[in-house]
Specification:
This protein has about 350 residues and is mostly helical. Helix content is about 45%, strand content about 5%. Strand 5 (about 195) and strand 6 (about 200-205) form a beta hairpin. Helix 2 (about 40-60) crosses helix 4 and helix 11 crosses helix 13 (about 320-330). The chain starts with a strand and ends in a 12-residue tail after the last helix. Residues about 1-20 have low confidence and may be disordered.
């Protein structure tokens, strides 16, 4: 059985959606290409969502593969009544469809009963997507100032030195803000993707959310900052030099003993580091996430007069309309009579 990540089958047959092709006759070369057919994050998501569905089917005493339309509509109804988000339910449907497709079974999610129930759920339970709170100046500058630069030890024989975690966090915050990279892109950034340029640095991203096949590298610029203490180029160079990183992942974990580990950060760790940095500045990190850097770039650039097209050049948004979702809250105050009531 060919798995795209080497995982084993579930105990009760071919029910693991990580199996892309249920065919033992694949050659080694074919299996290698099958392995590259799906992104690892996508596979992990499918497996998790499929496990949720199969657990529900076991409880409901119904088959999961092949699944009857009644099982899927019952499952969706249960999720909706429990308050699951429409996006979550949509992912679960994708996992169910994928599991059936890779086993050459008819797609049960295309059944008329499923489509009708799903449409009703979407119309009833769809809510506006939650937008990340933008992290931008002047608040971003306070967060940067709170990042430790020097590590002092209580042990008398251990001299003070650079705080590697603080240097990494400064680089992560500044680069993440100026480049508007997604957290997965920050975690996947390798030194080989970074090139010198007279105006700063250029990042050549081989893959992204909107370029999963890597047909072309997406270019993102990192300009020199006008203020030495806020330059993303300087912050990144300081981190790389102090951490002695000459190849491989750019952003890495730092141990409690102030030692840089060889592995790359997990995307969720990027989220945690951003929130921890905000908390160090005495700010409630609750409304913020790693995406706040991307949202902050879009909002701050807009407020400083950048056009949507210029913003999208850096963020790589395919739709200019998407840019507006980041700035509409600030834009709502422009030329609004509610601010002129004198109350």
């Amino acid at each position: 059985m060919t798995h795209i990540d080497g995982s084993v089958d579930f105990p009760h047959g071919l029910t693991d959606p990580s199996i892309v092709v249920a065919d033992d006759s694949l050659t080694v070369a074919e299996a290698r290409y099958v392995t590259a057919a799906r992104a690892a994050n996508t596979v992990r998501g499918y497996r998790s969502d499929w496990a949720e569905f199969t657990t529900w089917c076991t409880t409901a005493n119904t088959a999961s593969l092949p699944a009857e339309a009644a099982a899927i509509t019952g499952y969706l109804t249960t999720l909706a009544e429990r308050g699951a988000k429409v996006g979550t339910m949509s992912r679960r449907l994708s996992a169910i469809k994928f599991a059936h497709t890779v086993h050459d079974l008819p797609d049960p999610t295309a059944n008329a009963r499923v489509l009708a129930v799903w449409e009703g759920i979407r119309r009833t339970h769809t809510t506006p997507p939650e937008q990340a709170t933008p992290l931008m100046p002047p608040l971003l500058l306070d967060v940067l100032d709170a990042c430790p630069v020097t590590r002092t030890w209580t042990a008398p024989n251990r001299p003070s030195g650079p705080d590697l975690g603080g240097l990494r966090d400064r680089a992560l915050l500044l680069v993440g803000f100026v480049t508007a990279l997604r957290r997965s892109e920050l975690a996947a950034l390798d030194l080989a993707h970074v090139s010198e340029h007279p105006n700063g640095l250029v990042l050549a991203l081989p893959r992204s959310k909107t370029n999963q096949t890597g047909e072309r590298a997406e270019l993102v610029v990192v300009p020199h900052g006008t203020h030495p203490g806020r330059s993303p180029v300087t912050a990144l160079r300081n981190w790389l030099t102090a951490a002695d990183i000459t190849d491989g992942p750019v952003f890495r974990p730092v141990s409690k003993g102030n030692r840089v580990l060889s592995r790359r950060l997990h995307p969720e760790s990027v989220n945690t580091l951003v929130q921890n940095a905000i908390a160090r500045a005495g700010i409630d990190p609750g409304p913020y996430s790693a995406h706040s850097l991307r949202a902050g770039f879009v909002t701050h650039a807009h407020l400083r007069g950048a056009s949507d097209r210029a913003i999208a050049h850096q963020t790589r948004h395919r739709s200019l309309a998407t840019i507006g979702t980041y700035v509409r809250i600030h834009h709502a105050w422009d030329d609004n009579a509610a601010t002129q009531l004198g109350l």
